[in-house]
Amino acid sequence: MHSVVDSASPSMAHSLDQPSVRFRNAARRGDFLVTAEVMPPKGGNPAHMVQMAELLRDRVHAVNITDGSRAVLRMSSLAASAILQQKGIEPIYQVACRDRNRIGLQADLMGAHALGIRNVLALTGDPVKAGDHPEAKSVYDLESVRLLRLINQMNHGLDSNQKKLTDGATELFVGAAVDPQSRSWSGLQRRFERKLEAGAQFFQSQLISDFERLSKFMDQVAVGCDRPILAGIFLLKSAKNARFINRCVPGVQIPDTIIDRLEKAENPLQEGVVIAAEQVKMARELCQGVHMMAVRREDLIPDILDRAGIDLSAPSPTASSLRR
Known about the structure:
Layout: H1 22-29, E1 33-38, H2 47-56, E2 62-65, H3 77-86, E3 91-96, H4 102-114, E4 119-123, H5 144-155, E5 173-178, H6 185-198, E6 202-207, H7 211-220, E7 229-234, H8 239-248, H9 256-264, H10 268-284, E8 289-293, H11 301-308
Parallel strand pairs: 1-2, 1-8, 2-3, 3-4, 4-5, 5-6, 6-7, 7-8
Helix pairs in contact: 5-6, 8-9, 9-10, 10-11
C-alpha cells in the first residue's frame, strides 16, 4: 500500500491533525481490505488497547474502536481513536446514536476531523438494557441512516439545520454496518439501499457464519453498488463460546460442524484460529475485505492472517477481479 501516510516511519510521532487516509485510498483503489476491532479500556489507562493495536499496525489498513459496544461502559471511542492516531495507527472511529443527541454527535464529528481522524462507522447502537448500566437513559435522537445523512451534509459544509459550517466542512470517510444473515431479506435490501443513498462509502458486516448467505447477498443485494463490503470474521475460542453466540447473538447460527471441530480439538483456541483463517479465505473469494473480531485475543489476528495468506505488502487483487 502506498500513500502519504504509508511513507512515514511507523515510529514517527504523528501530529494530531495529520489525516489518516490509508484505508480510504486502499478502498478507492479496489484493494482487498483488512480491518480489525479493538475495544477501548474500561478505565483511564489505554496501555493494553495500544499494545493490541500495535500488533496490528502492519497487518490491517485500520483499527476499529468500538463505541459502547453491547451498551457496556468503556472509554470514549473518540478519545481512544485519537490515542491511536497519535501513535500512527489509523483508526476507524465508531459512532453510535444511543448516547448523544445531534448536537453532541456533530460536535464529536467535527472534533474527530480536527484531530486528523477520517474514518467513521455510523451505528444506531445496542439497547441500553443489554449492557452494564440498564437504568441509563437512551437518546436515539438519530439512527444510523440519519447519522449517515448528517455526516454527508457536514462533508458538504452544512450542519443538521442546513446552516453553513462557518469554519470549514468535514472530510470524513463514512461507513455502515450490514448483516447479510438478516432473517428479513427484503428488510436487509431496503436498509442497505437506504444506507447507500445516505452516503455510506464502505460496509462492515456482522459475524458471518453462513458463507452461502454472504454469497447470495453479494450476488443479489450488493452487486453493482461499487462500495467495498468487509465480511465479519470472528475468532471462536471454544465450543462453549460458539454455543453462547448461537444462544445470544440474533441472526447468527454457528454450524454444528464447526462446534464439533472445536469440541474435539486438543487445543480449541488454536482450532478457532484455523477456522477463522479458512473463513478469511472464503470471504476473499466473495467480497472486498474482512473485518476481524477476536475479543480479548487481538494478538492472534496476525496468525490468522498469516494462515490465510493475507499480506498487505503484496499486490492486492483489484475490484474488477472480485465478485462485486
